[in-house]
Amino acid sequence: MTHSPASDSSRPPASAQPGASGPGSPVRGAAHPTDPEALRQRALAALLAARERTTLLTDSVDDRELAAQHSSLMSPLVWDLAHIGNQEELWLLRMVAGREAMRPEIDGLYDAFQHSRASRPSLPLLPPAEARSYTAEVRNRALDVLDGTALRDDLPLLRSGFAFGMIAQHEQQHDETMLITHQLRSGPAALTALQPPAPTDSGLLPAEVLVDAGPFTMGTTTEPWALDNERPAHVRDVAGFFIDTTPVTCGAYLRFVEDGGYAERRWWNPEGWAMVREHELTAPLFWRREAGQWLRHRFGVTEPVPEHEPVLHVSWYEADAYARWAGRRLPTEAEWEKAARHDPASGRSRRYPWGDGDPSPEHANLGQRHLRPAPAGAYTAGQSPLGVRQLIGDVWEWTASDFLPYPGFSAFPYREYSEVFFGPAHKVLRGGSFAVDPVACRGTFRNWDLPVRRQIFSGFRTARDV
């Protein structure tokens, strides 16, 4: 059910029973409530926040636009809406509560593994009013299940409210997918937001910081709502490296563009060079040059490319080419996580760069609050112990690593959750973007996508060997 924006999710197979092996025992700490009522309230808040965002994304356009396919890369918004309800019904009503299916005839329509995004407009999808009604009825029943179900440690789907947290994450992930669709749609802006905060000391920041060699703990065994690909915690020994203090900015990337980066084969992975040639790429997605000025399209608005903002909508191939041009490289996934979580003073791995507390608006640009990345160097309160900033929020950051299981990985709740995506076809992204909700973003959270993807809210930072 977790997904990159490329993969959506699927239904549980018959073998995915509530008693199957699953996440570890709940964490004992202030950031993770263990009292059943506190866990219930945490799950309730996460579900309600997700539905509030879904409603905003679907009510901000009329029914015609809701049912239209704005890009062959994405589903119609109405498919995502009903899919959210269908997944909630499958997991919380059928799997957890053991209830009969409400609408068994629609299951196949909303199984992402059965139908590609490009083909979904041709399916007999629920029309907008019916999709809203179905999803609302599922939610009403799911809240009754949450209210009346014991969050039992002996059942992994219920331990620490995992199933409810999983569904909240799934809905927020589809909200991010729907926000991508909003970016791809034509016409005037349907969404607005405040500007993100500007940094106060960006001129004083070093360009890079040193992360010393040595072991650190990667992944988690104790984060209650962590997904199977984040598990288990294990020790990685990482050689020393330098990493950018902030993500690469539009201004820095523009120098690559104007230096002929898209015309120089030597900077590109062979598959990336083929992509550049086939599609005649000259700049990031949504950029264009007009009257001697670089402009970009952002949620229905055309504006000058903001040079101090992290670059957005670049593929892994573009990130890799820029890094080669700059004489650097993309960080590995282990390097990224060590820079984000390792505290040299204590030797432990934190939940987030700033510590173990949940994200606040002072820490990171999350939750669709600003509809754009904050300028590089923002969020002093969210920096890591070494002073690395914006590791959480703003832009998903491509890493050099393929999406692979950790040592000791165990699929949960079923193989299609993560396991079928493991391998060299997908690259790992870390950190989340402004489009990601805090419930679906942690220092251990792993996203993945195909290296050609550009419509996602992706950027990067670079690294180099010591």
Question: Could you characterize the architecture of this molecule?
Answer:
With 466 residues, this protein is an alpha+beta fold. It folds into 2 domains: 36-184, Up-down Bundle (Four Helix Bundle (Hemerythrin (Met), subunit A)); 202-249 and 324-465, Alpha-Beta Complex (paralog of FGE (formylglycine-generating enzyme)). 28% of the residues lie in helices and 12% in strands. The protein is built from 9 helices and 12 strands. Strands 10-9-8-11 form a 4-stranded mixed beta sheet. Strands 1-4-12 form a 3-stranded antiparallel beta sheet, with helices on one face. Residues 13-21 and 24-30 have low confidence and may be disordered.
